[in-house]
Structure formats: structure tokens, C-alpha cells
């Protein structure tokens, strides 16, 4: 098998694994598996991440939609995170919100690494929109193991990690309260040590020194991120990146913020990745419709990976250094912005996402470019 195909097959496995695992979460409910569950519509997360201590301290203000009066609300959270308190927020126009603590039950999963199921008793639940504040903290420390068969680490080799070498927390980590299949928007204010930068889905807002009343540690910087496109999972990374931003306009007139977040040693590669990103977007927007997000970022990872997330791709340092800008590489990740990250796939019903993405990036790029020899080669490789 040619090297190009091997590189492509790994991120595809990762993407499928994330969706499978996310969809597979489920704990048998006493009131029957078919009873309608609450859905989370918005997360407003304030978090501090302390890499040296592997710790996360967070508050998530959840906007939920409860389908039924007096039916318990259940959500999942990582087993290493401890809930400090849960409060019900009652808001009415012109009045300060009323915040009351509510009791909750915690059910451990069958294995030590299984997520905890947290439930809010039925008597506190009213049908319709509800706001809950969940305060929690704990350790996320699962250093990525070397991949055994693939050149990339798949989610099975880390459930998420906070450490001095980097931060990677995803839906696999269960680092925020979640209800399966909820499509949510997010507002995040995430504090990390000065010199570190947080990257996640959506659009970055203001960064400022973290005020004393928000951060327990000195010398931290807090950054806002806003995710307006509903998503079923949120991945967040942080490291000592050098960021390069280009506010760019596509040939169709669409404005997109292109950026790279690279380690200082590789920061000189920013221009090459930004130029290639612009080239692919200009080719695929006329074909697939407006680009679905406000930004696209190429982000360097502290472990080997080739992951495509909504509005960014997370690429291991090794492949970043090897100029991963080819159609089957960066082009493929950009096509996933439409196919897989905007139109979702249920992997158990067939992985059409990889088929279509591979066709459009690995092969059709050469058709678009009029490179008949390359197109023919790619056709031969796919058979
Ligand atoms: Zn893929």
C-alpha cells in the first residue's frame, strides 16, 4: 500500500472511533430505555487548566431541554472528576437569577474507567428549558501510549491528557457534563498558564490575565471561545503555541479566519500551511457550498495524530514537520469540514464519510487541477 493511503487511513479510523464511542454511551435506566431524555442545548463553561498538576477546575452552566415534568435528568462525567455542587438557576426578566443547590445521585460504571452517571432527582425537573450549574474538579492524566500498529495515536490510546507536554481533552474524556446525542452550542472561558494558548472549535475571543476571583493560581491567562455551530462533541487542546492568523476572503466572497498553532520550532511553516488551506478552500467551496465554520486552524499536537475536528485539524508534530499539505493529507482534512464535521455520520450505518472524502480529496483534486496522470494513479490506487 502506498504511503499516502496509509496516512489517510489512520485519521479515518480516529474519526470513526470517536463517533462510535460517543454514540455507544448508555446506562440502562430504571424508567426504561425508551423514555425521552433531556437534551443539552448550550454549555457555558468556565475552566482552569493547570498542566503541571494535571488538573481541571470547572463550572458548566447548562441549558437543558427537559421533555417531561418530574423525570430525572441524567448526564455523564469522567470518573476522575469530582462534583463539588450542582445548582438550579431560575431566571426571570428584570430580577437577579435565583440559584439553589440541588441534590444529585452518582452512579459508577462497571469498570474503573467508565464514566459516572449523575442524576438530578425528578422533583427538581420541570418540562421545558432549565438551567443547571455544575461545579467540578479533578485530574485528567492519561499520557498517550505509543501506537502499536498505526503511525497515529487513536482515541483508544488516550482518554485525554492534561500535562506539561500538552493538553488534549475530547468527548472521549467526558470533561464536561454530557447527554448522548445532544447537539449543543458552547461558550468557553478557559484559563491556562501564561505562555500557553487554548484552541478549540468555534471562534476565539478576547484573552486577558485571569482575575483573582476566577483563578486560584497566579499568572494565568483566560481566553473566550464561542461555538455557535451546534456540535455533539467538543475537543479542546492547549500548548505553548506560536499562533499565526490570516483573515482571508475566498473567491466567493466568504470571509474565513485561517490560522496555525505551531510549536516554536515549527512556527516558520505557518505560511506554507496557510497558503495550502486557502488553496483547498477556494477549490472546495464552489463544489460543496459555503465553508460551514468561521475559522480553519492547523494545530500541532504533542502526540502522533491526524484528527479532523469541526473548524480545526490536529496533526502530530512529526507530520507537521514533513510538510503535510498534500491533497490526501491537509486537503483530506479540509474536505472533512463539510463531510463528517458538518454533516454527521452514524458509523454503525456505514462509513460513507470516508468514501466521499477520499474521493473528493485524494482523487478529485487532481481532476480539478487537470493533472490527468495523477488522477489516473489515484484511481488505480483506490481499486
Ligand atoms: Zn478521513
Summary tags:
binds zinc ion; Immunoglobulin-like; disordered N terminus; 2 domains; globular; 383 residues; alpha+beta; eight-stranded mixed beta sheet
Question: How would you describe this structure to a colleague?
Answer:
There is one protein chain. With 383 residues, the chain is of the alpha+beta class. It has 2 domains: 3-20 and 241-382, Neutral Protease, domain 2 (Orthogonal Bundle); 42-238, tricorn interacting facor f3 domain (Immunoglobulin-like, Sandwich), CATH 2.60.40. Helices cover 22% and strands 38% of the residues. The chain is built from 6 helices and 20 strands. It has helices spanning 3-24, 270-288, 317-321, 327-335, 352-368, 372-382; strands at residues 39-50, 55-66, 73-77, 81-92, 95-101, 105-107, 116-120, 128-139, 161-163, 166-169, 184-193, 197-200, 203-209, 220-231, 236-239, 242-249, 255-262, 295-301, 306-309, 312-316. The strands form 4 sheets. The protein has an 8-stranded mixed beta sheet, with no helix packed on it. β4 and β5 form a beta hairpin. α2 (270-288) crosses α4 (327-335). The longest helix has 22 residues, at 3-24. The chain is globular. Residues 1-33 have low confidence and may be disordered. The site of zinc ion has 7 residues, from α1 and α5.
Amino acid at each position: 500500500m502506498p504511503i499516502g493511503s496509509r496516512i489517510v487511513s489512520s485519521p479515518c479510523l480516529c474519526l470513526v472511533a470517536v463517533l462510535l464511542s460517543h454514540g455507544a454511551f448508555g446506562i440502562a435506566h430504571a424508567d426504561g430505555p425508551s423514555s425521552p431524555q433531556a437534551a443539552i442545548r448550550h454549555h457555558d463553561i468556565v475552566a482552569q487548566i493547570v498542566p503541571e498538576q494535571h488538573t481541571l477546575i470547572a463550572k458548566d452552566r447548562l441549558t437543558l431541554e427537559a421533555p417531561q415534568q418530574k423525570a430525572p435528568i441524567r448526564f455523564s462525567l469522567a470518573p476522575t472528576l469530582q462534583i463539588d455542587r450542582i445548582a438550579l438557576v431560575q431566571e426571570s426578566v428584570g430580577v437577579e437569577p435565583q440559584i439553589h443547590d440541588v441534590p444529585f445521585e452518582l452512579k459508577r460504571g462497571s469498570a474503573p474507567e467508565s464514566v459516572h452517571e449523575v442524576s438530578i432527582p425528578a422533583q427538581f425537573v420541570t418540562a421545558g428549558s432549565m438551567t443547571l450549574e455544575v461545579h467540578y474538579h479533578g485530574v485528567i492524566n492519561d499520557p498517550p501510549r505509543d501506537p502499536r500498529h498505526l503511525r497515529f495515536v487513536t482515541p483508544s490510546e488516550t482518554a485525554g491528557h492534561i500535562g506539561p507536554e500538552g493538553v488534549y481533552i475530547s468527548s472521549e474524556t467526558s470533561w464536561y457534563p454530557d447527554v448522548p446525542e445532544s447537539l449543543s452550542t458552547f461558550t468557553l472561558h478557559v484559563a491556562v498558564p501564561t505562555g500557553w494558548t487554548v484552541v478549540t472549535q468555534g471562534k476565539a475571543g478576547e484573552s486577558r490575565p485571569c482575575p483573582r476571583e476566577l483563578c486560584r493560581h497566579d499568572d494565568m491567562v483566560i481566553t473566550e471561545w464561542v461555538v455557535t455551530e451546534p456540535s455533539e462533541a467538543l475537543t479542546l487542546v492547549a500548548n505553548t503555541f506560536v499562533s499565526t492568523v490570516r483573515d482571508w476572503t475566498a473567491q466567493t466572497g466568504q470571509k474565513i479566519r485561517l490560522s496555525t498553532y505551531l510549536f516554536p520550532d515549527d512556527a516558520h511553516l505557518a505560511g506554507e500551511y496557510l497558503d495550502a488551506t486557502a488553496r483547498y478552500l477556494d477549490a472546495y467551496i464552489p463544489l460543496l457550498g459555503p465553508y460551514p465554520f468561521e475559522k480553519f486552524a492547523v494545530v500541532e499536537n504533542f502526540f502522533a495524530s491526524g484528527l479532523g475536528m469541526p473548524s480545526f485539524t490536529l496533526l502530530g508534530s512529526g507530520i507537521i514537520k514533513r510538510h503535510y499539505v498534500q491533497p490526501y493529507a491537509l486537503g483530506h482534512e479540509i474536505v472533512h469540514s463539510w463531510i463528517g464535521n458538518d454533516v454527521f455520520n452514524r458509523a454503525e450505518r456505514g462509513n460513507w464519510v470516508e468514501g466521499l472524502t477520499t474521493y473528493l480529496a485524494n482523487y478529485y483534486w487532481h481532476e480539478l487541477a487537470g493533472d490527468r496522470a495523477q488522477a489516473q494513479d489515484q484511481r488505480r490506487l483506490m481499486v
